[in-house]
């Protein structure tokens, strides 16, 4: 791999809560020691269920949250503790599209104001015609420039969110579940748009999603997270998974084909509370392949033919 | 037929929201009611449970026959005896269906005490039995817990338990798994499917997830802008969808075997109920097969294979072996 555009190493984020007069503070680790390198032009999908730390990871990579530990390097430069003006400049190259297009746009801003916002934040003039260009690129009519978010549908709003992220012509875009609140037909439109933009503008994406089917279609690499840890990295999104959790996720996303109706054996139980992480492998209490060792030792990532897996008893290839 | 809905039309105020919707479900069957947001799925559920009146809705035509009884003009007191007892309703958000101030057990008990006339003690035994059958570990302990002490998947099981507590014949489930994680969704979907077979009840499953439909439904009714686009057996719908909208909806689901760029979506958006045309196909403006006829004449449902299709230019028939083109 040539120099990665984004390199995360040992990235960790802890949150603490509570801590009142009589109550001790409790702390949880939302992201635990994540190592990840993203090459230029990649579409890396981060997939997992709620509470696995995927959104926290996205916010850490964007420097919207401060990491508790670990480093973030962007284009070779250590940006872990960048602040002030330097951080604002970083955002010209590193942008984000948020999950909910209803809350990520200011209801009192017109579409034009929304798209101009990144320039205003840096106190720079907006190049003439930029707003119209961006509307063209995201497939919205130019007449929308003077509309307000409440006049638009969810899919249209998300296009505005994408236009805003592209305002400075970034190299890297973090997409935090950009289609989770949209209908499937609109989701497919947005994914097609993101694919076109990726090709035309030579972008790199970090795509956060809970939908493994979508990630396998859209992404060139897959990172699977469970309770804050990366359990598997798949360099080939179409390969058979090695980690039992990845396989369970795959079986749980039903294939839209009645003939492929499988008598799946769903995973028992639910994700444990992140405040009381089990000792050893976080997936051990639900894992069908669990061994004694899994309950006491934390598995370290080991290389597989398709990536790496953190499991003592991975599924054979 | 356990429930047969014929040409049901419904308005709120002056806005007509459902237009001659027909479908049926029998015992031991799962009917999937699918469509995008705004297609009228949830409104249909409210109509079937008689709750639509509470939001100002009015049935303007058609019939709802449940086990031989006509429901469309049933007065509220009679509906109240039916609802919860013979027709159970599972809502999308389990949190809003549960009372935060009562224990799980009290809430499930209430159903069987009210509808089956069980004593306090017998009702609790009944509740624990149902919770156990829904694979809730340590059901007796869970029955003493409050909703906030349970996870989302667990709460949804409790809501299903409430639906089963009075031995309902028909369950109407409105997006029962949408708020849940995929591994938990798989558990709930399997539980529902098992219930229908084991207890020989009917299930109307409202969902936008074609994967779930393919997994457990026997029949499917595709709604678009308040009308039925296509209804028929699940196999034919996925194999050879006849209505261009059904085909497009199936084509919107990303599959790993798809070539890059194959996922395109459906251009445009669902029309607003204020702009529904009467004498046209409401999908025409988004449809690649539409011509002048589609913009001026309403397509009426007619047989295509085993399905009923409301389209002037259905696809996938022998005469027109065309590929999906959206």
UniProtKB/TrEMBL annotation, chain A:
InterPro entries (UniProt xref): AAA+_ATPase, ABC_transp_ATP-bind, ABC_transporter-like_ATP-bd, ABC_transporter-like_CS, Oligopep_ABC_C, P-loop_NTPase
Pfam families linked to this entry: ABC_tran (PF00005), oligo_HPY (PF08352)
GO cellular component terms listed in the entry, alphabetical order: plasma membrane
Entry keyword set: ATP-binding, Nucleotide-binding, Transport
Protein topology in the membrane: Peripheral membrane protein
Keyword Protein transport listed: no
Compartmental location: Cell inner membrane
GO MF annotation terms: ATP binding; ATP hydrolysis activity
Record's keyword annotation contains ATP-binding: yes
Span of the signal peptide: none
Residues covered by the ABC transporter domain: 6-252
One record GO biological process: peptide transport
UniProt cross-references to Gene3D superfamilies, sorted A to Z: P-loop containing nucleotide triphosphate hydrolases
Main location: membrane
PANTHER family associated with the record: TRANSPORT ATP-BINDING PROTEIN
Protein name (Swiss-Prot/TrEMBL): Peptide/nickel transport system ATP-binding protein
Organism: Gemmobacter caeni
Taxonomic classification: Bacteria, Pseudomonadati, Pseudomonadota, Alphaproteobacteria, Rhodobacterales
UniProtKB/TrEMBL annotation, chain B:
Statement: the UniProt record of this protein carries the keyword DNA-binding: no
Locations listed in the record: Cell inner membrane
Database matches in NCBIfam families: oligo_HPY
Family the entry assigns: Belongs to the ABC transporter superfamily.
Name of the protein: Peptide/nickel transport system ATP-binding protein
Domain of life: Bacteria
PANTHER family found in the cross-reference section: DIPEPTIDE TRANSPORT ATP-BINDING PROTEIN DPPD, OLIGOPEPTIDE TRANSPORT ATP-BINDING PROTEIN APPD
A GO BP entry: peptide transport
ABC transporter domain residues: 3-250
